Structure prediction request, 1075 residues.
Amino acid sequence: MFKCKTSPEVGGMGHSVKRKEDARFLHGKGKYTDDVKLPGMLHMVMVRSPYAYARIKNINKEKALAIDGVLAVITGEDLAQYNLHWMPTLLSDTQMVLPTDTVMHQSQEVCAVIATDRYIAADGAEAVEVDYEPMDAIVDPYKALDKDAPLLRPDKEGQKDNHIYHWERGDKAKTEEVIAKADVVVKERIHLPRIHVASIETCGVVASYDKDTEKMLIYLTSQAPHAIRTVLALVAGHVGLSEEKIRIISPDIGGGFGGKVPVYPGYVVAIAATFLIGKPVKWIEDRSENLVNGFARDYHMDCELAATKDGKIQAFKVSTLADHGYTDSSANPSKYPTGMFSICTGSYDYQHAFAELDAVYTNKAPGGVAYRCSFRVTEAVHAIERMVDKLAAEIGKDPAQLRLENFIKKDQFPYSSPLGWSYDSGDYEATLKKAMDMLGYEKYKKEQAEKRAQGKLMGIGISTFTEVVGAGPSKDFDILGIAMFDSAEIRVHPTGKALARFGTKSQGQGHETTYAQILAEELGIPYSDIEIEEGDTDTAPYGLGTYASRSTPTAGAAAAIAARKLRDKGKKIAAYLLEVSEEDIDWEVGKYFVKGAPEKSKTIQEVVFAAYTNIPPGMEPGFEATHYYDPPNLTFPNGAYICVVEIDEETGAIDVKRFVAIDDCGNIINPMIVEGQVHGGLTQGIAPAMYEGIQYDDEGNVLNGTFMDYLVPTAVESPHWETGHTITPSPHHPLGAKGVAESPTVGAPPAIANAIIDALSPLGIKHLDIPITPSKVWDAIQAHKK
Amino acid sequence: MIPAKFNYHKATSLQQAIALSQELGEEAKYMSGGQSLLPMMKLRFATPEHIIDISKLEGLSYIKEEGDLLKIGGLTTQSEMEHNELLKSKYPIFGDAIWLTADPSVRNCGTIGGNIAHGDAANDQPALMIAMRATIIAQGADGEKSIPIDEFFHGFYMTALEPGDILTEIQIPKAKKNSGGAYHKVERKVGDYATAGVAVHLELDDDGVCREVGIGLTNLSPMPMRLERGEEVLRGKKITDELIAQVGLIASEDCEPDSDLRGSEAYKRAIVNTITKRMLNKALERARK
Prediction:
């Protein structure tokens, strides 16, 4: 286990200190974008399409403009005058800001109403008359490729059908050959449906342009304020927005989960509106708007897993159809259109794999949000973990045993995966065994056998996942060419207290505490003496933001290295103060001392004070350092999750009796915060496994666009999470840390699905797609009874 | 999520509220807890011009036994009922239902009168009222009226209340010796409306013969429904497992569910069978205590 180097008062790594940010959150004093009120501020409300696919014949603004307080109705035609009606996506596609002639999905923004208050703006939106000519929508992605399917994107030059791109990785011929010759091959089509991130705070913006200073001030619910500033400068440079004149402030954020990475049309319209009107404009999504726009997942995966008759895995092949909606606006900064999907070979040691993917357009909302996972890792992990369980069932081997026999061994790291990743470290066997011990695996296997003999439905499901996080090394990632480093800038004041600023942006992760703990670990300055700031592009060093569990792997590493630069400077000052040579100085947390004479020492605070008051001749005064960290590799957190369920055969009700989660995220900065991250992530794992999924009818209408029908689980639905850790430090990260936030969201769904399917297996049920609801279970039971 | 413009009137007395309603006409709506009406207004499904807020009217929030009756004031909140000692000790069916209704903050505002007067078959209280054979007392321009529960529900969001009427009291026959009730609903998650719900109330004589029984169903028909054929099977008989199984089957046959996001018609018919049996057994157990 990790041994703390610092005292609880200093609060370095390994201490469960309370979160510094919580006082303001618990007292209701957090300041969110919707709390921003500027003098003369106007309010914007969107008119949205009731149809999934329709031609806009006419937009009549008259009745809306007649309402006292409505100042403007902005349409795509209006934006077209400034060439702002389309915007580029990260993946070289294009997305409408506002349409000029066609709406491509239900609830798409049609026009924006600007008024003196939000109520009047809502009345104005109601009064806008739009004349639509509905067309037949493409909802089923498999039908999007039909020969007679209408061409959804005739605006794109050279686009002949609804196919967006083909991607592949691995040796296709060899993989197919191994599969063809294998003793056992299990196959399944697995769908991970669209889900919403459903953060408690919806998205929003307050944009304020000052015509005199030409400064554009933007308060934004953004996980990546610097990146958005650069994007804005690049796409709106032609109307006069220049990067040094743009200031983006991400205030407190009430949950991001990837949903606050993209640029939404509402942001662009609000920015255009303040630019034209010269008054601040606020746009805040309401809950329904948030729920019907943007999505994560939506991969249809045809999987084949080949093995010997004893269960030695030999090859994995997955062919995927991806439903991207009407544009590929995936919030994916990797160099690969499918992100990290090629992690799909999992935690197992075999040579042959092939993954391919075809993406298509449909009449659904764009998005491709990486919901609490590093760009398609959830899809990848679900595919391999379901297939491994299916293989175990097929050959009649215990799924834990099958995994233990196939794991990459501890001494094989760094491990080159068949699809090209270099896994940094792990001890998969120890992690699974710890989970099995904590659960009492054998006891439950026995209980299951007894229950089955009585005709009762009980299941045990395992998931032993490998994550890939910390975007990322510049060989794999960039945003518009900008490498995906992150940054830390430390200023230690004369009295030994510090201010540190970062290029990341917390949305609830607790950065104000954990970054302070990293600096406390490295400098010995108590964490409580260190202020952390993020989110203001005018003050924070450039960074790419927070998502993909990247803050600790990138900015956390930058903090450690910047602090070490300061420690080196401090050593020189200490040597000067103690009148010895630098080589004679040693460091223990918080203190420099003379080797062999520990009574001759200077505290870090004394050294810092000297940096301002008694500087060695020729040395630059002050005690400040900055570091930009481009990681040499990604980190590969992993875990073993085991779930036990019982199912009421009469009603299909699923009772999660136990859920044990052992995570290995390397060295841990704050165990309490990690515990909280894991609890939240597991709850967001049970969500798609048993509750959530956007449902569409044949016309492309979203059927569950409110929280009444879009079922976000609460504490009541959450089982008692039992958590634990193994610790295998990352060899390439300065702190040996890996990042943890996404592991539970990625790892939990297959454990739950595997448990439910295991429970139903005596009835002959071999697979169910998530979400697995009681009614779906009941339907499956009936179908297999007949 | 922003309602259309409306005028807000705070009622100061029952008579003033009724007079105001008469004056403002059909475009006026009463609001007690507002937990059904306000969401409909925010979605602009309902756009009343006038809201008459009756939530602060005095003297309409109480729970008491008087003579042969249990009387509950129309403005009694679900939370007040949830924590009421009389209901907890003698009428546990209310606890069963209220624990499954929405969430604490909704129950702090939502009233029993509103839950029933809304006329929504998805609400939980109507099934309880049917099972316990309640009488609804209302005040209107013509004075007080008393409506048996079987004459109260007229259709989808429609009740026997006429414009201007305010539901002031629920009257339920007082719990007798050897009587008991139980309610359960299957819901997709906490706070959800019922996929299917069943309320059972029964009374046994000293020999254990079923003297009276009421069975109400939630969200399985366009309006709150009494399972008459099931009641007939049990009335005057010693309740056996066979009879209970028979009533479960009748429930699945007689209910009128639609397939929707909560499940297929077949699924709902199957689970109403199960819940009916389980609630009959639970009510029986309580009656025998």
